[in-house]
Design a protein that fits this description.
With 251 residues, this protein is of the alpha+beta class. It folds into 2 domains: 136 residues, no CATH class; 97 residues, no CATH class. The strands form 3 sheets. Strands 1-3-4-6-14-13-12 form a 7-stranded antiparallel sheet. The longest helix is centred in the first third of the chain and has 20 residues. The chain starts with a helix and ends in an 11-residue tail after the last strand.
């Protein structure tokens, strides 16, 4: 590769680092490497982009301990980019490795942004609809391969609404081993029926069997999930059809 070609990549990478850094509340380290040349820049193309960051904070409460991301070829609309709006001409395939600490996860779960995304859900328990309204949730990573959940919900059944607090320990799916629920305890409230627990387990199995998730114009699949003491490591494959606008992403 010529020095001139590498200079083009370096300048573009530095500008990308500057722009992304401006949209982050906090940052410890960031490094972006754009693979392209002058002709491709004019055409709005790049062979790929790699991104590595540590201690990234978005909108005060969403923090990522570490992220490593790699894309394949990118094609953007050069005219829109001139005016500061990036529009993809074709979907971009991405693979990312994301590390979240226990503190990161609980900080995010207590944020307004995540709170608004957390849906109520309903269960069919022997022909009767029971709904759960999440009030609070905390996550703990006490040992390798284990996730502990502690939370409070409003349980609505048979025309009555009552609070319920619980704790549960689960083992995420790993290769040939299915996800396992190690324990479930009601810590406040009157407890729940066996029928409700059975319906809840069916719902959990259904959610864990979803092949992919969709958020705005991003379709992603969790390829692997590794739990260490204090850290959750996700390996994600995603197809980005369009970069979310600033009114969708909490920047």
């Amino acid at each position: 590769m010529s020095d001139e070609h590498r200079l083009e990549e370096k300048l573009l990478s530095q500008e990308a680092e500057r722009r992304i850094s401006e949209n982050l509340d906090e940052i410890q380290q960031i490094e972006i490497d754009v693979k392209t040349d002058l002709l491709k820049i004019v055409q709005g193309q790049a062979d790929g982009v790699s991104f590595a960051g540590e201690g990234l904070v978005i909108q005060k409460d969403i923090r990522v301990q570490e992220i490593k991301l790699q894309t394949d070829g990118i094609a953007i609309n050069p005219l829109s980019a001139i005016f500061g709006e990036i529009k993809l001409d074709r979907p971009v395939n991405t693979i990312a490795k994301i590390t979240l600490t226990e503190a990161d996860m609980n900080r995010a779960l207590s944020s307004d942004f995540i709170g608004k995304q957390m849906p109520n859900f309903e269960l069919d328990v022997d022909g009767e609809i029971v709904s759960f309204e999440p009030q609070q949730i905390q996550v703990f990573l006490p040992a390798a391969g284990k996730i502990e959940f502690r939370g409070k919900v409003l349980l609505k059944e048979k025309g009555n609404t009552r609070p319920l607090a619980y704790s549960a320990i689960a083992r995420p799916r790993k290769h040939s081993q299915p996800a396992m629920l190690e324990s479930f305890n009601c810590t406040e409230g009157e407890g729940v029926s066996i029928e409700l627990i059975t319906a809840l387990m069916h719902k959990a199995k259904e959610l864990m069997s979803i092949p992919y998730f969709k958020w705005d114009d991003i379709v992603f699949h969790i390829k692997d999930l590794d739990v260490e003491i204090g850290n959750l490591i996700l390996l994600i494959e995603a197809q980005v059809k369009q970069i979310p606008s600033s009114d969708v992403v909490p920047l």
